[in-house]
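Thread title: Can someone regenerate the structure for this chain?

I was given the following input by a collaborator and told the matching structure tokens would be attached. They weren't. Posting the sequence so someone can regenerate them.
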Amino acid sequence: MERRKQTLDMRGIKTYSARERKNLVTIEGLMTPGVTPHETFADPNLDLLTERILAARANGRPVIWSMGAHVIKNHLSRYVIELMKQGMITHIAANGATSIHDFELCYLGGTSEDVPTAIEDGSFGMWEETGGWMNEAIRLGAAQNMGYGEALGAYIDVHPERFPHREDCLLWQGYRLDIPMTYHIALGTDIIHQHPSCDFGAIGKCSGIDFRKFCYSVSQLDGGVFLNFGSAVIGPEVFLKALSIVRNLGYPTFHITTANFDLQPLGDYRAKIGYDDPHYYYRPRKNIVNRPTQNGGIGWHFTGDHRVTIPTLYDKIVAKCKK
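Best answer:
Regenerated them for you:
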């Protein structure tokens, strides 16, 4: 066979039950709004952002919440769910890892394995329930022309006996509340892609449907808010492409508010920088804070731990809603 056509036969992959695994994140550790103590994030711009979120929802405009997996891994699921229930979040967009950690907490009550030890013997990510059930859900969803998020939410909904912790699951809550949950997948990046039952065609179809759903939400964003929590590549890249599509189609999306939350300090993030500055290559700076808002909007960057910024933002939203 020509070298350019050679592929690895994955049929001999060994999988293991996740129920025997040690988890670094557990359902018992989830922070609870109004109950769990937390530090307060001090930045006056967060008050301005809060006002814009409330104004967007009062005017029927969307608030899109983009995030990476560390929002889940930092035990913050309940904050996001409460904002969904209160109508403050109209769309959640995330990467594949976010769906996996959310899904595992839902059925197992724990997630996040110890990677350094597991990678030595090839057991890392080889979890039968996670890979088997998620790939099954995605295949079934693809056959019904569902998006990736809807397929997983529907699967959880019809198998309640498998998912005792679904009340704390974003996927299920989004399905139940009819909130779009879109997952933007890079093939080969997620542990379920290692599973022998993985169907890349189904994953691509479902994630492609989700991208079009995401584009629709972005098309409605004039007067709305786009928030990004810790997604340094997928979130900002998908947002910029969706924004280009909807502007190409003539949708007014210039009076928008954007905010990026991350540990990365950027200094004066609105100052012009050149190729010699490493911050130039930090995608959220360009693709979320600056470029989308240069003709009528405003973008902010907030440097802080999610365990501080998200609870503080939640508290501010709740406090202003009570006034």
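The two ends are 71 Å apart (CA to CA).
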